[in-house]
Write a structure and sequence with these properties.
four-stranded antiparallel β-sheet, alpha+beta, 4 domains, Endonuclease I-creI, 379 residues, five-stranded antiparallel β-sheet
């Protein structure tokens, strides 16, 4: 897919130009047209802004007050002055939508469609919402309770587009939701022909254009869903969605990545299982992608996968004395299945088997819960 130039973002883009470039524009206006008024007369039908507004766009002081000028006006003006729009693009120091609050500073232009670009979209399909305010363009809000993953979401956007200057500073460190600026969100809508319904949990699908991409893009998309909706168990990774069609899309992604997987449809849910050997291949592929794009960091999920792989690859997997070992541990302290599995480097399934046997023998009992599903056992 070709790069995206700033004029491809739409007509309501407003920019702050480099002052030295603005001086060049004003010099060419004086030498070619004598005054701003004479140039304005030639382009006023196209720019569709009052003369006073046009003059403001050409003033240095206007941008010192943190105002922004219309990209459309600058493109038309530069065309008349013999300046290519590519030179204009090289001299943009920040941009935003017309009424947007959040700004892209030190922009990366043209915008490159990398695997991280599609990973951002996947995050918003998996755990995002489309936010509307009257008079403003819709934009993405991404819900994430893990602080590292929230920060990584912003870093992914910045690695593709440039530094984001949020109106309220580091707000995303104090809330569970991060926001994707409207000027950026609009590109995803436009590029993949999406609308607000494309992100509803029961209706969302992966765009066909993404399914047809090369493996690094597909892997980045899959990693986003593992971060947002995945569960790492001792011998597999599972992704459960209340959207069988979207789960089937992810199943197709896994098949294209040559991962051993299975798909189960149960009532309104689809469950994708990435099996043990595929988990190892996925982790190896992830580490290669991470070298090129560190923003795809799996964080604590990476540790879980590594632990699972260590458990399943050890030379001695079954020890007759594990039942007695677990009982002795529980005599000393109350523990969950996950805690026991971590302490003795054993699969959770194996721990559960011995726990059930000890319960039947009435040697241990349920003492409470840690979270919703983690049962605490003790003697």
């Amino acid at each position: 897919m070709s790069d995206i130039d700033i004029w491809d973002l739409g007509e309501k883009i407003y920019i702050k130009p480099n002052i030295s470039f603005l001086k060049k524009i004003n010099f060419l206006i004086r030498t070619g047209f004598n005054s701003k008024e004479k140039l304005y007369k030639k382009i006023k039908e196209d720019v569709k802004v009052p003369l006073s507004t046009f003059k403001n766009f050409m003033k240095y002081s206007y941008y010192n007050r943190n105002y922004y000028g219309s990209l459309k006006v600058f493109i038309i003006c530069c065309s008349k002055l013999g300046i290519s729009k590519f030179e204009l693009q090289e001299n943009i120091i920040s941009y935003k939508t017309q009424r947007g609050y959040n700004i892209i500073e030190n922009p990366i232009l043209p915008i490159k469609i990398t695997p991280i670009f599609d990973m951002i979209l996947a995050h918003n399909i998996a755990d995002g919402t489309v936010i509307f305010f009257e008079g403003r363009q819709p934009y993405f809000g991404y819900r994430q309770y893990d602080e590292l993953f929230r920060e990584l979401y912003i870093r992914k956007i910045e690695s593709v587009f440039g530094k984001i200057k949020f109106k309220s500073g580091d707000y995303f460190k104090k809330t569970t939701r991060s926001y994707c600026p409207a000027v950026v969100s609009q590109l995803f809508f436009k590029l993949y022909d999406l609308n607000e319904r494309s992100f509803l949990s029961k209706e969302a699908r992966l765009p066909k254009e993404i399914l047809d991409k090369e493996k690094s893009y597909l892997l980045a998309v899959l990693l986003a869903f593992i971060i947002d909706e995945g569960n790492v168990d001792s011998t597999l990774i599972s992704i459960k969605l209340k959207n069988p069609s979207l789960t089937e899309d992810l199943y197709k992604v896994c098949l294209k990545l040559n991962y051993d997987c299975s798909l189960k449809i149960k009532n309104d849910y689809g469950i994708l299982y990435i099996k043990k050997m595929a988990m190892k291949k996925l982790f190896d592929d992830y580490k290669e992608l991470f070298k090129r794009y560190p923003e795809c960091n799996l964080g604590k999920i990476s540790n879980k996968i590594e632990l699972s792989l260590n458990i399943t690859s050890r030379s001695i997997r079954y020890v007759k004395g594990n039942k007695d070992l677990i009982f002795r541990m529980l005599r000393l302290e109350d523990l969950t299945v996950n805690q026991i599995a971590t302490k003795i480097n054993m699969t959770r399934q194996g721990v559960r088997f011995h726990i059930k046997s000890l319960e039947v023998d009435k040697k241990i009992f349920r003492k409470g819960h840690m979270g919703e599903r983690n049962i605490i056992y003790g003697v």
